[in-house]
Specification:
The structure is a homodimer of 321-residue chains.
Chain A lengths: L6 E6 L2 H15 L6 E6 L5 E3 L2 E3 L1 H10 L17 H8 L10 H15 L4 H11 L5 E4 L6 E6 L2 E4 H7 L6 E7 L8 H8 L3 E6 L4 H9 L4 H7 L4 E4 L2 E2 L2 E2 L4 H7 L6 H8 L5 E5 L4 H5 L5 E4 L6 H19 L1
Chain lengths: 321, 321
């Protein structure tokens, strides 16, 4: 992809976001004069564990772009093994967070790069280059932002809520510790400043925990809102269910309608276009004049991902005219 | 084992030492009123790699005592896999030092304990307890001692010499950086002070790189020499070859006779008994009045280990009378 044809900014969180990002990369790769793709990833889920810097969303995006992701399990790497975890259990170590043997190499190498003085952006560029990923991928920030989930059993660090407690506690609100003092990463900052930014695509990620941490950094929401480029989002909710993860449960606990409409409401006027699943086609009429389109959004195969990505890119082109 | 029946101190380095240590633990376990076994392990080979504290000799001893060691390969853990290394290679990481997926759990957990403020002795006790090891195992010191190998191609950090360069450079001398300022670990210190110390057994480890780092710490050699307990060593050389590793090559490069006699000479009067292999039986007469005995020293099976250990323990008993 050539940087002279403008660029597209994709904001992504975990697995759903990673799928659409891979679809966007695939769709743009086959397109003449394609804009370059800039992928900015949530780091609110990052945490230190066993002395390693774990960045689950960066890894989901990276593995999907490198075609290393496990599609059946839905997370982590294909062909993963768990010998490390079994040995760690034998040693009495902390095993509530599963680290695959291959996946571990990413965490060890990233931690080594960070401890050697690289920023998270530099370490991410290092790892994505090594995996021959042709698009720019960066964290939302090089300074830590940590999502805290306030629940009926108290405040929980994100991975304690998400993995250890398996999202069981009822959520009252979220806190993004460090967000107020955080600056957007160089890639996010530069891309938001580009006059040839052609579109912002908010991937089908959980808005509360994958996208809001980015919007919580000073200036980001305002810069997005004032950008000339259209902002499109794809709903992570189909019918009344999240494709994956706790988005539906959170919508309910936070008092939103448990549907794509709840997601749209949460984005609060930020969107120029909102892609919902075709099972939610009724919303297109019901919510008019809100800019909704209904297509097949479930991404089970690479073809699904590319098709959805192309639909989104085409709509971006229309909106820019 | 009961600490009221006195104790035996074993000094061990890598794989050969680990085998005899396992044999000693096995032999003492079956003996009524057995003394307790205190195992002190070389840390001159330890190094920081990929941000992890690697302690190859402590691990060899620990894995052998926990019956987790790979006897066929001769090092590391049984049933080991290498998915981490392959993933690390894909990421362009440093792959000259092989870290198995199971083995990695030890390094990650130890590094976590050390970074949490534990001493290496405490971390080692933590790991050996988790593996139900019934004997005390400790590093020689809680402060870093790092073996530097001076060679015809310059000074090399130990693992660079040993693994990366596969012991090819010719050795001129060794340096144990930090040894002068290092204190013996609590286990080594306490055991050397015990009036009921019944024997010191120097395992069939490479004297230059496994035992000398311990003897280089202030006071250790003198305290051993003045202890009332007999000091026995088992030769790591059989005929003109090391059972494993570069001991024979080092003897030659350093101007010693390349045989068990070279090892005995290097220990320079420290030994009250020296066990050589029966293929070296001629040395018993040739070197008289040096206290040599020739037995089968090659340890291929658990029975071999226990038999050799029992021979050594019996001789210790004789010498104490």
């Amino acid at each position: 992809m050539d940087d002279n044809n403008g660029c597209i900014l994709a904001l992504a969180g975990g697995v759903g976001g990673a799928k659409l990002v891979a679809g966007l990369a695939g769709a743009l790769e086959n397109q003449p004069d394609a804009p370059s793709l800039k992928v900015v990833v949530n780091t609110g889920d990052d945490f230190e564990h066993l002395g390693l810097h774990i960045a689950p969303d960066l890894d989901s995006v990276t593995y999907a772009l490198a075609d290393l992701n496990d599609i059946e399990r839905g997370w982590g790497m294909r062909g993963e093994t768990w010998q490390f975890m079994q040995a760690l259990e034998r040693l009495g170590g902390e095993t509530w967070f599963s680290l695959g043997d291959q996946d571990l190499a990413t965490h060890v190498e990233r931690t080594r790069l960070l401890n050697g003085g690289e920023t998270l952006s530099q370490a991410t560029a290092h790892l994505t280059r090594a995996l021959d990923i042709g698009v720019d991928v960066a964290p939302m920030s090089d300074t830590p932002v940590r999502t805290i989930v306030h629940t009926d059993v108290g405040a929980l660090a994100f991975q304690h809520y998400f993995v250890r407690e398996q999202c069981r506690p009822a959520v009252s609100h979220f806190e993004f510790v460090g967000a107020e003092a955080a600056s957007p990463s160089p890639l996010l900052d530069e891309t938001l400043s580009r006059t040839d930014l052609r579109a912002v695509i908010i991937c089908p990620s959980n808005p509360f925990i994958s996208i809001d941490p980015m919007l919580a950094m000073p200036g980001v929401k305002a810069r997005l809102a004032s950008a000339r480029a259209p902002i499109l989002a794809v709903s992570p909710i189909i019918g009344a269910d999240a494709v994956k993860g706790p988005a539906a449960k959170m919508l309910s606990e936070l008092g939103y309608e448990v549907s794509a409409a709840g997601i749209y409401a949460h984005y609060d006027g930020l969107l120029d276009g909102f892609v919902v699943d075709r099972v939610d086609e009724r919303l297109v009429t019901q919510m008019a004049p809100a800019p909704l389109r209904a297509v097949k959004t479930l991404m089970k195969s690479a073809a699904d991902r590319t098709r959805l990505a192309q639909t989104v890119l085409d709509w971006c082109d229309e909106l820019r005219c």
